[in-house]
Amino acid sequence: MKLRALEYLACPSCGGDLKVEAKLTEGEEVMQGTLMCSSCYDTYAIERGVPRFAGEVGLTEQRTADAFGFEWTKYSELAPRYRQQFLDWIRPVQPEFFEGKRVLEGGCGKGRHTAVAAELGVLDIVAMDLSDAVDAAFANTRHLPNAHIVQADLNRPPVKPIFDYAFSIGVLHHLPHPERGFRALVSRLVPNGAISAWVYGREGNGWIVHLVTPFREKVTSHMGHTMLDGFSALATVPLYLATKLVYGPVRNGIGKKLPYGEYLGYISTFPFREQRSIVFDHLVAPVAFYLRRDEFAGWFESLGLRDVKIEHHNGNSWRGFGRVPAQES
Questions:
Q1: C-alpha 293: how far from its chain's center?
Q2: pTM for the whole thing?
Q3: By the 8 A CB rule, do 211 and 324 touch?
Q4: Mind listing the pLDDT tens digit of every residue in the chain (329 residues)?
Q5: Burial of 66 (C-beta count, 10 Å sphere; 0-12/13-18/19+)
Q6: Which residues contact 279 (CB under 8 A, 6 or more apart)?
Q7: Helices assigned H by DSSP within the chain
Q8: What's the start-to-end Cα distance of the chain, in Å?
């Protein structure tokens, strides 16, 4: 943990300022120590460079954290293609939007979007995740002076309401109450602050909802993670062959008219290992909501966000953007 993170962090119990007691440092990083709230005196550990605010959560949340902790620890490498993927997920936001902003990320996994945002010139980004993937995220971003990783419950962000922009990519739909997580992120934005979110769509995912989801809920989400990872490798073989031999060569024009063509054409350039992680991702989660457009848009409307833009992405998901209203003078 870099000491400048204290400008952003707050006690998740009372919102008070935090003080740090360092026990082990490496350069600018506090690798081991304790954070204490100056108001309620609650304490939080710093372990392996990451402040640990998670505390106790429900069984479903813990199972989800364990599942994705395994995934992003195993598939922890970063790739150059993540930059364009990230920008696709948060459109209409453009790279220049990040310059000088204070950014909050809800659900960072291995830190792939954290690293991109930091490199796009943010003042600082605080990225949180409930799972042990924070260790991979820290390893992937500790060289970036403006990146800060914390282990925390997205529903109780341990940060002050001082952020210019928040985003959550592929995370909210795995919460037991997705809209609650969205509201928690918006609550940490300043007036005129903005938020982007990307979630699974109900439209365009009928076969997953009716076929894959029951299998995931009853079978694969209860499998051991190592066993499921092996099963995912086998399941990836026909997917990989289809994307490389069919969807890739005709990804434009006629390719988009094939079943699931827009999405499978999109991932046709991904290597086998990346597609394997996608398959694992879709089979491991205890909870996955596939949201209709009106449900997703309702999150933005209920909070009175302005400049809202909701778009279908790859024919099977939704990306949304909105701004917090300005304070009345």
A1: 20
A2: 0.95
A3: no
A4: 999 999 999 999 999 999 999 999 999 999 999 999 999 999 999 999 999 999 888 899 999 999 999 999 999 999 999 999 999 999 999 999 999 999 999 999 999 999 999 999 999 999 999 999 999 999 999 999 999 999 999 999 999 999 999 999 999 999 999 999 999 999 999 999 999 999 999 998 988 999 999 999 999 999 999 999 999 999 999 999 999 988 887 666 666 677 788 889 889 999 999 999 999 999 999 999 999 999 999 999 999 999 999 999 998 999 999 999 997 64
A5: middle
A6: 232, 235, 236, 239
A7: 59-74, 82-90, 112-119, 134-141, 178-186, 206-207, 213-218, 225-242, 261-266, 272-284, 293-302
A8: 38
The answer for residues whose C-beta is within 8 angstroms of residue 100's C-beta and 6 or more apart is 121, 122, 123
Hey, CA dihedral for 176, 179, 181, 182, is it positive or negative? positive
